[in-house]
């Protein structure tokens, strides 16, 4: 490794997360150009060597770059959020086709002033695909459906509870957000593309999903904090 | 590290903290300093001491300087109504090399970087807003890198300065001079086409 080399995490469809070295990438843009920007979809040529932890990255051909569309701080934060979550949740060489498809879909929807919806969608689905999403329609303790009542969640627990069984210090999930979560879990992200999705919409659901992710990862996500500061 | 005398081990340890310096490089540098004359070693130590003692940030543009305001901000020959915004002080040298820019600068000391926890509150943008809203600036050129973080920063600055009298400009991006367009990626080529100019 040299100072100008970059260690890059690739999320590949066939082999899952692959870490590799992009030689001299921080000094010269000739070989990789803008292909090393986070969340760039590329056709990658790389070589894995026996007894070497890092692959040798040879060339990237850009299929789609986030720089093809305008970028603002919100969109950049959303893209960085996907990157950080994947870096933390994926294991090396463990293909995750569902996560790959999820990522392609949400990145496409993540646009300037239109990123809260894909961030919410991604957060909820990444919880589900990792097996971390609890039953969201009824109280985990008594089994009572939430119906038109809010659900309660505690920062130190996975499950949702009714008003009777909530713990002290719980936060709420509105009935609208619970219904939205159910819709998200049965519809493609494109189904939500046409609707208006201001910052405040489903902010409680997003907060629940982000905190849940952080609890399972046992660390604070830098980008989740940035999203919260943006009003998420 | 224990096999070295204590002063040598200490110097190696300190050198290892520098970027790009590993254990072997640190040893090599430490032995080079040991073999150098006392005057050379003292000159190196003095330069490091002086760097920390004398250098500060320009109170106008945030460039690193030993005099305040810096050489650019205090130069009456430069156009003070034209401000180029850069990420780091090192970017100034790159622009100065062109010899085609005669305005002054504003250094942000970073870009918006959500992955590294750098938000708008961490950049030196308030002093830029104050400079521009004071009405003494005609044009601001945002010269952050054409990366996701650089573009996000440029967009943030443009939004912050919107409503002031100054014209907000973004540096052009496209095919590098001397390169072959055959090897340009799609984003670069798209931007080169968008930024085309009329000839004749």
TrEMBL record, chain B:
Span of zinc fingers (C4-type): 58-73
Protein name per its UniProtKB record: Recombination protein RecR
Keyword Thylakoid: no
Organism domain of life: Bacteria
Signal peptide (UniProt feature, chain positions): none
Cross-referenced SMART domains: HhH1, TOPRIM
Cross-referenced Gene3D superfamilies: 3.30.60.80, 3.40.1360.10, 6.10.250.240, RecR Domain 1
Family: Belongs to the RecR family.
InterPro entries: DNA_Rcmb_RecR, Hlx-hairpin-Hlx_DNA-bd_motif, Rcmb_RecR, Rcmb_RecR_Znf, TOPRIM_dom, TOPRIM_RecR
Domain Toprim: 81-176
Entry function: May play a role in DNA repair. It seems to be involved in an RecBC-independent recombinational process of DNA repair. It may act with RecF and RecO.
Keywords tagged on the record: DNA damage, DNA recombination, DNA repair, Metal-binding, Zinc, Zinc-finger
GO biological process, one term: DNA recombination
MF terms in GO: DNA binding; zinc ion binding
